[in-house]
Amino acid sequence: MQIGIVGLPFAGKSTLFQTITKTHLDQFQLAKTESHHAIIKVPDDRLDRLTETFKPQKTTNAAIEFVDVIGLQKGDSGSSQFTGNFLASVKTNDALIQVVHLFDNDSAPHPLGSIDMMRDINIFETEFILSDLGIVEKRIDNLKKQILKVHDDHLRRELALLEKCYSFLQEEKPLRETEFLKEDFSILKNYQLLTLKPMLIALNLAENQIDDSDKYFDLLVKAKIGKNTKAIAFFGQIELEMSELDNLDAQAFMKEYGIKESALTGIIREAYNLLGLQSFFTVGEDECRAWTIHKGMNAQDAAGVIHSDFYNKFIRAEVVHYNDFISSGSFAQAKEHGLWRLEGKEYIVKDGDILTIRHN
Predict the structure, then answer these.
(1) Could you read off the pLDDT of 113-127 as tens digits, one per residue?
(2) Residues near 347 by Cβ (< 8 Å), separated by ≥ 6?
């Protein structure tokens, strides 16, 4: 899973990238024209507890790749230039975080000369809609020409779907908030449409604005927030400093400033929600591991995430939920209390399930 971080110049996207990845960049690295990449382990207290219980040789957390997308340029008038390279870099991500500049700082002035949350958000929305319109319109024209030459139900279905997309985009609506059938996504994924990507809006506030976050959230809820657009507040400079501390000192730091959770925790939670993801576990003396799957996946599909042979030769899954395992204290006790069970391939895996796959 790859999440791209975008924002206007001086919005604080590199600060957010460094904070959540604990990757501290010097001025030379920040000045580079290539995007910055980092893969982080997804913190999970449940996996930590399972590791304490089984004492495996290896523990493997789920992972997310974050990308600080470089390439958005500042124009002569202060406006931002959405280059083809920038848009191409954004397309490769599964979800996006847009960092919005809401702090006053003379050393990092807003490039447009004033702070306006909705203006900044709409700048990206408009550019992404225009990019998608160009792609969809071109494909619609090509499909119409193909359909004149050959009768193909698949092409007609694709045309109807893209005409639906075009209609929404013409109304300046992002596709992420549009209802699609599950099978529609197998067509749309080929186009890497920007407004179809889930969006997390990250409001970058200063330490003296901690009590102001509700005000901005209320405005966003009325204007922008939908099922695939979420928002979170973070306090860039404070949290960058906090990322250099150990866990105990960081918690004390958060308590002192009244910060309820770290940017990393909040962003991972919202990213999982936006992408419809969850985790299940495999455990043992060799390894305790968290696996990331989409909500709604069945036991056979989850087995295939572990290994393709497990999918092809699936027989049954031994299942006990993490909470039931912890309350029971062992697999044996879980079995005795009827909390351990055998499930077939159609069983829908729950977040926090511990699975053992039986296969040929």
Answers:
(1) 899 999 999 999 999
(2) 298, 299, 317, 319
